[in-house]
């Protein structure tokens, strides 16, 4: 499981490592990289750990398609 953290407020990855980030969780922050500290890292990791990963599957509660 990978986390891609993009700083600077940009919400795009610009085709950066497309195969490696296919199943990565993306996290965007407005601050620039030199201004980040361990609190920002803690927030990114906390957000990452609370996400539900389905790896391309549908939720178990979904019914069959009609």
Percentage of residues in DSSP E strands: 5-15%
Helix content: 10-25%
Q: Give the SSE order as H and E letters.
A: EEH
Structural class: alpha+beta
Low-pLDDT stretches are: none
Q: What is the overall number of helices?
A: 1
* Count of domain modules: 1
CA(first)-CA(last) distance: 34 Å
Work out the radius of gyration. 15 Å
Largest sheet: 2 strands, parallel
- General shape: globular
Would you tell me the overall average pLDDT? 83
What features would you describe in this structure?
The chain is of the alpha+beta class. The chain has one domain (3-49). Helix content is 18%, strand content 12%. A two-stranded parallel sheet has the order 1-2. The protein is globular and about 50 Å long.
Descriptive keywords:
single chain; 66 residues; alpha+beta; two-stranded parallel ribbon; 1 helix; 2 strands; globular
Quick synopsis:
18% of the residues lie in helices and 12% in strands.
Walk me through the topology.
Elements: E1 3-6, E2 25-28, H1 38-49
Parallel strand pairs: 1-2
């Amino acid at each position: 499981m990978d986390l891609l953290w993009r700083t600077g407020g940009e919400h795009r990855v610009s085709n950066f490592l497309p195969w490696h980030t296919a199943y990565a969780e993306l996290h965007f922050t407005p601050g620039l990289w030199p201004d980040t500290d361990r609190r920002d890292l803690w927030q990114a990791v906390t957000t990452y750990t609370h996400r539900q990963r389905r790896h391309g599957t549908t939720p178990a509660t979904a019914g069959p398609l009609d």
